Every structure is written in structure tokens, then in C-alpha cells.
Amino acid sequence: MRKCFTMFGTCSTPFGNRSTRALSRKRPAMITSDPYVSVCLAGATVAQTRIISNSENPSWEEHFCVPVAHPVMKVEFHVKDNDVLGAELIGVVEISVEKIISGNTINDWFPIIGNHGNCLKPFPELHISVQFKPVENNPLYKNGVGVGPEYEGVPNTYFPLRKGGSVTLYQDAHVPNDMLPEILLDGGTVFQHRQCWEEICHAILEAQHLIYIIGWSVYHRVKLVREPTKPLPSGGELELGELLKYKSQEGVRVVMLIWDDKTSHDKFLLKTPNSYGPRQPWHDLHCKIEGPAAYDILINFEQRWKKAKKRDFKLKKVKNRHDDALIRLDRVSWILTPTSAHNGDDKARVCNEEDRENWHVQVFRSIDSGSVKGFPKGVQDAEAQVRMNYVYVYI
Predict the structure, then answer these.
(1) Residue 34's closest CA among 84, 76, 77?
(2) Residue 306 Cα distances to 86, 179, 257, 321, angstroms
């Protein structure tokens, strides 16, 4: 009897089921593999089935929709055996792009090839049904990405789509002048590169009410401004730690939160001491968000802060768990904040819809109850917290 692996149906032996029943009377069932399948594109796993324990002929019957936005030569299906110490590769099925790109449905059995390019015995096979659908046939893109008066953002998410915003993109924290390439935009204009850390320094110096900082590591002795491109106000020459103290002495609320939960950097419960933390992101992408979406980022910070303080209170066995570190912006009448009412974010907008620099921004996050206070207990509400989108920019 040949051993088969199938995604959309069971595999029958060419000799019928009689020999299998006769075999089972003579000896107990053997312990076999715990198979699952990973779908890979250019070395990246884009989909994965569940694990079926102790099965020679597993039937997953799972369906995936995988958006592809980069060139690939083939689609690989890695059949693996789950183990306590890690998965073991059983074999691979490869389907070339030339067969898929036509758009015709491929629905067939494929032999599982071993690590050395040889067919495995007793000749296992994987049943696959796959079809390529061009992006222009997807109704989600009928007006482009997120364009159109009826587009309301990705549904069933925690934060809504915010309009009337502004997004400034940065390459690297600090780059000397004329080092970055020239980027042409529509209309013959040229993208104006900005200095991330210098603008952060000016934002801190101009803050009047609050400064909230969150990250994996914060090095207090760093100087944000290396080569100023504009006049630097008093205090801008200070190191970051002294600069924050400088603003705190002015009456500005300064709150700092270092990520330390299982959904951030310590994925394997490895704690990183601040003195030996990860380097500052000198070669990275950064952005500045202004408008209603900035309020959503503030809400996310507050929820993470409250969760961290609650955990801190438990460790220190504090009975009176009152935390007044955060400012209640809803009580500050002159600070504009969006509301849940229809067009409730209009007063917080910084651009109108006719402005070419107007951005529609929706904030996503991938977290669980270990990260924020007030994480929803219902399954559908929890899914909204970690909802992913076909079209997004991950910054």
C-alpha cells in the first residue's frame, strides 16, 4: 500500500482496503509521522496547514489566498513531520510559475521529492488545487489601493481608517546631505528627504503637554542632532536623557515604556538588559504620522502602558493600584481628538481631501492579551486586534 499525503481528499490504495484490515488484526497500529505542509515562495513561508497527528494518509482540506507582490520562479509545498525538537522535512513538491500563470486551475497529484531530488518510497504524493488570479480581477483594487469615496478601510479591525492625515517618510535616522538618491514623483517633482532624528529633536523641544516614548531600547546618551540643517533651539544640543529631563522640568509629562512582553522582541522569553540592548535603528525606515491616526497610536501606547503598570503592580504587590502617569486628553478641551461619531475625526484632520499630500491611514497591530489592557475576550473581537490586510504598508 502506498503512503499518500493529500490536501483535498483521501488517497485510496490500489489493492483495496481488505489487506489493510487483515494487517491490523495481526499487529497493533504503527506510530507514523505527524505531517503538515508549508507553502513557500522564494524561501518565505506564506501559508501552512494544521498538523495531523499519527497519520500516513492525512487529509487537510484547507484553502489559502496568498497575495504575491514579488517575482518568483516556482511555488514550493514542503511536507514536514512535526517533532518535539523541530520539524523534519519529508519532501517537497514544486510547481513552476509557467504552469500557474495562465490562470487555469491546476488540480492533480504530484510526487513528493526527497532532499536529494529522488522520489521517495513508497512513492508518496500530494494532491494540490491551485489557481492564479491577476490583481486587476480583484474587486478590492477596482479604484486602486484604498482609493474611492466608498472605501472605508479594512473591515473588522480595532482602529478605523482615518482620513485627512499626513505621513512623512524617512530613510535612516540621520543621513548627511546629498547621500540619498534622487526620487522623482508624479508631475516632475522630486521627493524631499528629511532628517528623522533632527525632526524628533525639534518635536520634543516644541512639545507642550506630553512626550511618550516606546521602543525596544532607548540609549539616553545619544545626541539626536549631528549636523543641523536648521537653527537648533535651546536644549537641542543635549543628550536624549538630559533633553527629556529638560522638558520634564518645564512641566511636560514625559513617559517612557521599554517593550518587554512576549509579542515584541523577547519572542523566546529572552530578556535584553538595557545596557546591552539592540543598537539604535541607524539604518532603517521611519515615519511621522500627523492627524487622526496619530490618536490611534496614542491609544495603543496607553493600553500597553496600563498593561505594563498592572504587571509591575503585581510584582511589587502594590495594593493601591492607582496610576496617574498618563494625561487624560479627553479632559483637555484645547487638544483636538477624534470621536466615535460620524465624521468624528474631522476636527483633528490636518489636510483636506483635495490636497495632493492628503493621506488615508489605518493603524494595525499584532498583539494579544499579554500586551495591552482591555484586550477583547470574544473571539471575533480578538480577531479584529490581529487582522491582517491584503494591502498594507508595515512600518
Answers:
(1) 84
(2) 36, 42, 10, 11
For 194-259, give the DSSP string: --HHHHHHHHHHH-SSEEEEEES---TT--S-SS-SSPPPTTTTS-HHHHHHHHHTTT-EEEEEE-
Q: Does the predicted TM-score (pTM) go above 0.85? A: no
From CA 42, how far away is CA 44, in angstroms rounded?
6
Beta bridge partners of 93: 77
DSSP string for residues in 58-95:
-B----------S--SEEEEEEEE--TT--EEEEEEEE
pLDDT per position as a tens digit, 42-90: 888 999 999 998 888 899 999 998 888 778 899 999 999 998 777 889 8
Which residue's entry shows cell 535584553?
272
**CB burial of residue 147 (10 Å; 0-12, 13-18, 19+):** exposed
User: Phi and psi at residue 53, in whole multiples of 5°?
Assistant: -75, 140
